[in-house]
Amino acid sequence: MLSGSKFLLKRIGLIYTPYEGSAPYQPIENDEKEFFIVIKKKYSEGLRDLSKFKYICIVYILNRLKGKPEMTIAPPWANWKKVGLFSSRSPLRPNPIGVSVVKIKKITGNRIYISGADVFNKTPLLDIKPYIKDLDAKEDSNNGWVEDSRDLEHLSLHVRGIPHNY
């Protein structure tokens, strides 16, 4: 719903994860813990045929963030290189909206069991979109400024959310 320069968004469900105090920076697909989404019953018909997809994009509110966004940031995992906020994956943004791609494990009723997600337990879910291979995977995509890193392999582990020793 539109109201002047503000928008009213509806929570369509909750994302359940094992993360309470901290969460990874990116989804960890092979995380063995339990991750699932519970959609409000009134939206459950919208899950029809979703199980035919392997991955989904989940859109959510980053409701536990503290601090204000700055337009220039220096990610610690990028050796403190200064970049613009919109060329980063920093969670501190003007609108606290997060997007993650997760794998569907199974759907039972209004519950979607998923691969590891990079969100806190009971994060409000705004939307689900199917990840469509021919639309969402761009063969000519690149890594932007990340490719300038001297230690691209190490940086790639951070970007992909793969646990490792620093």
Q: What is the element string, with H for helices and E for strands?
A: EEEEEEEEEEHH
Radius of gyration: 17 Å
How many individual β-strands?
Answer: 10
Class computed from helices, strands and strand pairing: mainly beta
Q: What is the overall shape? A: globular
Strand order of the largest sheet: 3-4-9-8-5-10
Low-confidence stretches: none
Q: What is the arithmetic mean of pLDDT?
A: 85
| Residue share in helix | under 10%
Major sheet summary line = 6 strands, antiparallel, barrel
Task: Please give the count of helices.
Answer: 2
* Ends distance: 45 Å
Beta percentage is 25-35%
List the helices and strands and how they pair.
Layout: E1 2-3, E2 6-7, E3 13-16, E4 36-39, E5 55-61, E6 72-73, E7 83-84, E8 97-108, E9 111-114, E10 123-130, H1 133-136, H2 152-159
Antiparallel strand pairs: 1-2, 3-4, 3-10, 4-9, 5-8, 5-10, 6-7, 8-9
Give structural notes:
- The chain is mainly beta and 166 residues long.
- It is built from two helices and ten strands, in the order ββββββββββαα.
- The strands form three sheets. Strands 3-4-9-8-5-10 form a six-stranded antiparallel β-barrel. It has a two-stranded antiparallel ribbon with strand order 1-2. It has a two-stranded antiparallel ribbon with strand order 6-7.
- Strand 1 and strand 2 form a beta hairpin.
- The chain is globular.
- 16% of the residues are buried.
- The model has no long low-confidence stretch (mean pLDDT 85).
